[in-house]
Write a structure and sequence with these properties.
Strands 1-4-7-10-9-8 form a 6-stranded antiparallel β-barrel. A two-stranded antiparallel sheet has the order 2-3. It has a two-stranded antiparallel ribbon with strand order 5-6. It is built from 1 helix and 10 strands, in the order αββββββββββ. By secondary structure, the protein is mainly beta. The radius of gyration is 17 Å and the shape is globular. The longest helix has 9 residues, at 6-14. The protein has one helix at 6-14, and strands at residues 18-25, 32-34, 41-43, 48-59, 65-70, 73-77, 82-87, 99-105, 115-125, 130-137.
Length: 138
């Protein structure tokens, strides 16, 4: 007898309160361009394609985890730019270097307008939600 998790899936997807867009550079021509005046990376007007738009949640995985110092040099993992995306199972498969952008967030206004690079797609898939590791762009 299979366990029916459709009700749990609906509840979890109802808690995904960020609007996210998944972009992919179809031919490798787009990327970030260095503004030599400010030193900031700006999105180049390349050929990124919108693959998907829907609800998700961009979250920090928790506090930095201390690791033993190596020869007296302190270190911490995960890095300060580490985020995770929680996405519905209906979202398409992602690839490293895809970009998630956040046009709207009911939970955190500081996420609005931010872009994240997909760093790792194999963080985990559960019966109700997919997790992807992200890094902040700019």
């Amino acid at each position: 007898m299979a366990l029916d998790l459709s009700g749990v899936r609906r509840v979890v997807e109802g808690m995904l309160d960020d609007e996210v867009q998944l972009w992919r550079d179809a031919d490798g021509a787009s990327g970030d361009e260095l503004d030599e005046q400010t030193g900031a990376l700006k999105p180049e007007g390349g050929v990124a394609v919108l693959l998907w738009e829907g609800s998700g949640a961009i979250v920090r995985p928790g506090q930095l985890s201390p690791v033993p110092p190596l020869d007296g040099a302190p270190a911490a993992l995960p890095g300060s730019t580490a985020y995770r995306a929680l996405l519905p199972l209906s979202a398409p498969p992602m690839m490293p270097d895809d970009v998630l952008s956040v046009p709207r967030s009911a939970r955190d206004e500081q996420l609005v307008g931010r872009r994240f690079r997909v760093a790792e797609v194999a963080v985990g898939t559960y019966a109700v939600v997919r997790m992807v590791r992200l890094e902040v762009i700019g």
